[in-house]
Design brief:
With 173 residues, the protein is of the alpha/beta class. It has one domain (2-162): NAD(P)-binding Rossmann-like Domain (Rossmann fold), CATH 3.40.50.720. It has helices spanning 2-7, 21-28, 38-46, 49-52, 82-89, 104-108, 126-132, 145-150, 155-162; strands at residues 31-34, 56-59, 64-66, 72-75, 94-98, 120-123, 137-140. The strands form two sheets. Strands 1-2-5-6-7 form a five-stranded mixed sheet, with helices on both faces.
Length: 173
């Protein structure tokens, strides 16, 4: 994702796992992308509450319980979503949920598919959604993240039946 954003002219900073890296990268950013494993995202990001204040947080993670094969079997936040939990825990951060209904190679190279994928956009802040609107389709408020996060439960079945090849959920009209 970093390469694609850099090619598009954006300045990108990636936080590694070294102590303080996330704090420094977040403090300097206008938009932060959460691509951490969803099961630990809430704790990781709440620890950055001050650094995330007033920023746009793009959440591409899915908080799932994984099966023995490492693929999702259930949601960690049934009746809610990771994005809703983040927005509640970080009320001064503008959370936008997107790109979580496609495998990571499709996020930066959607042209590898035979038809364009549908990218959903969920969030409460209109300006935050406008920031990413050029690339994404607007779906609705933060509660719509429940549906897109639940779509991850389809992924293991597709992978088991067709192998690990790039794919995304699409809506045809």
């Amino acid at each position: 994702m970093t390469t694609a954003l850099t090619r598009a002219g954006h300045e990108v900073t990636v936080a590694d796992r070294s102590p303080g890296a996330a704090t420094g990268a977040t403090r300097a950013a206008e938009v932060v992308i959460n691509a951490t494993p969803g099961a630990g995202s809430l704790d990781r990001l709440v620890a950055l509450r001050e650094e995330l204040r007033g920023k746009i947080l793009i959440d591409v993670s899915n908080a799932t319980v994984d099966g023995l094969d490492g693929l999702p079997t259930d949601l960690i936040h049934p009746g809610s979503s990771l994005a809703e939990q983040l927005q509640e825990a970080l009320p001064e951060t503008r959370v936008v949920k997107t790109l979580n209904t496609m495998l990571f190679p499709v996020m930066t190279a959607p042209a590898t598919l035979t038809q364009p994928p549908t990218a959903f956009l969920s969030g409460e802040d209109t300006q935050a959604k406008q920031t990413v609107r050029e690339l994404l389709t607007d779906l609705g408020g933060i509660q719509t993240a429940r549906a897109t996060e639940a779509a991850i439960l389809l992924v293991p079945h597709v992978i088991r039946s067709s192998g690990f090849a790039p794919f995304a959920i699409s809506i045809a009209r």
